[in-house]
Design brief:
This protein is mainly α and 316 residues long. It has helices spanning 10-15, 23-36, 40-47, 54-65, 67-88, 95-113, 121-136, 138-146, 159-166, 172-180, 205-212, 216-312. The protein contains 12 helices and no strands. Helix 4 packs across helix 5 (67-88), helix 5 packs across helix 7 (121-136) and helix 7 packs across helix 8.
Length: 316
């Protein structure tokens, strides 16, 4: 039986807009309605829809509300993938800038998702992994941009570097084409609106084995090429790790500065409040003192008049 694609149904999109806690009940109601409307094939497809995880649901909301943020993160990821490939080929000039741009774009998406879900360290990591997975997997990208993502995803092993190192050495026309556009998507996972993921393509080991046969010179050169490719891959991973650690340290210092500034601001606010209260108290005391001074002056004047009258004696 051919599986019906229900990703275009408004009712399905509505399912992924509601709170995940209400998903199962809402899905059951939709299935019941579809069956009542004689749409049995669609009802069978909707039954298989998965309840979204918290991180994937929050990303769905960003895709629905601010799709430009998702597109920017995917574009930055493609640029980082291209820079990683260039680094493997000996040019690491773009790697740091591409890494920073990808992190900034990814954080923008995750921060926006924070409006829908508390951003713990684990949640941020899961969202970041899913965004990176969407770079190389067309099915994940399609679900993410449609706001129908239900599961968390992991990027390929060793990230972009593994993808770049696995294939055969590019020809000159291929290098030119890669410089003009981002690398093609590989679509390794099956869409989650269906059932199980596809099997991954066979590793590049078979292609490397072909290079070992042939002339004696090529047989000697192939293992050397492989060692160099692995060395370059390790170098890329090391550079990315160093850049990530540098960024983490910067963010930690920034958080500490914000914490210290908040403490200083709080102390200043408390000091200002206390000063205002004391100033008000002093003002009231000054007003009371002025009133008392006026009363005292009036009393003194009255006493002087009384003394003068006493000295003059009674009138004749």
């Amino acid at each position: 039986m051919v599986e019906v694609d229900v990703s275009g149904l408004d009712e399905v999109h509505d399912l992924y807009r509601i709170d995940p806690a209400e998903f199962v009940e809402a899905r059951a109601a939709l299935v019941k309605q579809l069956r009542a409307d004689k749409r049995a094939d669609e009802a069978r497809a909707v039954v298989k829809l998965r309840k979204p995880t918290g991180p994937s649901w929050a990303l769905d909301q960003v895709a629905h509300e601010e799709p430009a943020l998702i597109e920017a993160a995917l574009a930055a990821g493609e640029a980082l993938e291209a820079a990683t490939t260039e680094t493997l080929e000996g040019d690491a000039s773009n790697l740091r800038a591409a890494t920073e741009a990808e992190r900034t774009a990814s954080n923008a998406v995750i921060d926006a998702a924070g409006a829908h879900l508390a951003l713990t360290a684990d949640v941020r990591d899961r969202m970041a992994s899913t965004l990176r997975a969407a770079i190389s997997d067309d099915d994940v990208r399609t679900l993410l941009t449609a706001g129908l993502l239900a599961a968390d995803h992991e990027p390929p092993a060793m990230g972009f570097a593994a993808t770049a190192a696995a294939g055969p050495e590019p020809t000159a026309p291929e290098e030119k084409a890669r410089a003009e556009k981002a690398p093609a998507k590989k679509g390794a996972a099956k869409a989650q609106l269906a059932e199980a993921p596809k099997e991954e393509e066979p590793p590049a080991r078979a292609r490397r084995k072909v290079r070992r046969v042939g002339t004696p010179s090529s047989a000697k050169r192939a293992p050397v090429d492989e060692v160099e490719a692995r060395r370059k891959t390790r170098e890329v991973v090391r550079l990315q790790a160093e850049e990530a650690e540098r960024k983490r340290a910067e963010e930690e210092r920034a958080r500490e500065r914000r914490r210290q500034q908040a403490a200083l601001d709080s102390a200043a606010a408390k000091a200002r409040s206390r000063a205002d209260k004391l100033d008000d108290k002093a003002r009231r005391a000054e007003e009371a003192a002025a009133a008392a001074r006026q009363e005292a002056d009036a009393a003194i004047a009255e006493a002087v008049d009384a003394e003068a009258a006493a000295e003059a004696g009674p009138p004749d």
